[in-house]
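Late entry, written up from scratch paper. The run itself happened at the end of the previous shift, but nothing got recorded in the book at the time, so transcribing now.
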Amino acid sequence: MFENNKLLSLGYREAIRVLESNDLLDSISTSDLLSAENFFSSFSWYCEECGEHSESDLRSGCEIDCEYCGSCCPDVDDDAYKLAELVYSQLKHRGVY
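Output as recorded:
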């Protein structure tokens, strides 16, 4: 799913480690950061409880709930929110925002 994005293909924990490391940070292109930002801003998922499709913005830091039944998305954890925040911060630092 993320094979075309160097950052997201690492997995959330490893990607966090890369973005928090000054030595590794330069290995991530701005285009990979923008692609990750796009993924986080329009996160799409299917609710396991009711089967409905929902879209959410992981950059908000708020828990992702199904807009139809209120169940929480099981695919999102604290690492996803932290990575979304780090991606945005790095794009600001690079002058994109």
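Helices lie at 12-19, 22-25, 30-41, 78-93.
(Scratch paper discarded after transcription.)
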